[in-house]
Amino acid sequence: MESVAIFDSPGKGRGLKATKEFWAGDVIFSEPSLAAVVFDSLAERICHSCFRRQDKLQRCGQCKFAHYCDRTCQRAGWAEHKQECSAIKAFGKAPNESIRLVARIMWRLDKEGSVVSDMQLTTLDELEDHVDDMQEDELKEFKVDIHNFLDYWPRNSKQHTIDDISHIFGVVNCNGFTVSDQRGLQAVGVGLFPNLCLVNHDCWPNCTVILNHGKIELRSVGKISEGEELTVAYVDFLNLSEERQRLLKTQYFFDCTCEHCKDHIKDDLKLGGREVDGVKPSDEQVKEATDFCFQMLEKMDKARLNGDYHEVVKVCRECIEKTEPVLADTHIYLLRMWSTLSEVQAYLQYFNDAADYARKMVDGYVKLYHPNNAALGMAAMRAGVTHWQAGLIEVGHGMICKAYAILMVTHGPTHPITKDLEAMRMQTEMELRMFKQNEYVYHSMRDAALKNKPMTMMHQPESMEEGIKNLFHRRK
After folding, report:
1. What is the torsional sign of CA 259, 263, 266, 267?
2. What is the rounded CA–CA span in Å between residue 380 and residue 364?
3. For the stretch 97-124, what's the b/e string if a residue is b when 16 or more beta carbons lie within 10 angstroms of its beta carbon?
4. Are 43 and 70 in contact (CB under 8 A)?
5. pLDDT band at residue 459, thresholds of 50, 70 and 90?
6. CA 393 from chain center: how many Å?
7. Average pLDDT, stretch 47-75?
8. Which of 285, 365, 349, 288 is nearest to 313 (CA)?
9. What is the pTM of this model?
10. Beta strands per DSSP E along 156-214
């Protein structure tokens, strides 16, 4: 691979650096998975070969577990599923996703050796497993998985030592990457990508990772100089510095010393008070509003989990009414309230309310995120569609154009989401011209278009940004 090179990154161990200059939107490298599996919870709703979501899937007649779009997908996935199929039948049931993924990895390594491609920069033996760093509870679950794996692993397959099996489980545990559905909107599985494992973390990274047509793409979000280290964010920057450091330590076993963590950059905005005409609320008022908002977030999450969306609206409104005059428009708890209320109100078809809260959310995100952050792009996309649904075509078109510019960098022109967004952009551009020519004709045609629903978001109020924020898979 000519565009990158392995090097010793100070304080981080091995890393990747650029061997040439890159600009925003450049694909630094792409990589297929060494192996990937569908999540346990979606095993009957996602094709186990192409990872597409389908209403009707054909079940494997042998193991009764794997599901496929059709015979074509079943044949395409047979090489990976053949040994798995026999193992599931002999075991009597399908084990959990971690065990299935480790088994698929080991079958492939047994067949093809430690290097399965000329583009592979590292072997799994060279990757850290961090087994010695695990907490007692996590280690207990880890040992249960290994015990169940030994029962699942066929006697006629190559036998491995406990240390070798434990190492693969450890590598998967801290290096798994989520696999998304065909549109890239929902995480549906987990896979292992060896080259990606070499890319170190930074809270304000110069790269982003996206899954596109079955391969991950490492894409530059800005100018990268030759020799510069390539970094991605393992956790969401919206978290406070202290929380990011805690997550990175507990999940990935290292202390983040990046500039944004050391200097607590933007933490003041994330828990700040609203300034009006040069006057700020007292620290006590901000703390009281923050604590109240936190309590209401717990109530909101509970109502949302129960599918009681009218209760979600009630809780959000109560919280926003009390805290919005006190908290800054970049306060992370208030942003969560706006985001959730926007999603739920759009689902309940109160589009004007949804558009108002979506716009506030995007305005806050702009002040916190990198200009080419994928979560910002997805939020702008949602806000644009919501404004379109509310009949606010000028703002809607502007938001969609903003989202398109960001996603062209983070996802690229061939990604299904970007293609959808391009169609939206063209449609709203056409409608905006019509609106400026004759508002009456525009609104008449818009009402007819809404009945056909050419632009819809998700069927349930689930955040698209969350899928972007949580690409690095960690077992809960």
Report:
1. positive
2. 11
3. bbbbbbbbbbbbbeeeeeebeeebbbeb
4. no
5. very low
6. 29
7. 93
8. 349
9. 0.90
10. 177-180, 187-192, 200-201, 207-212
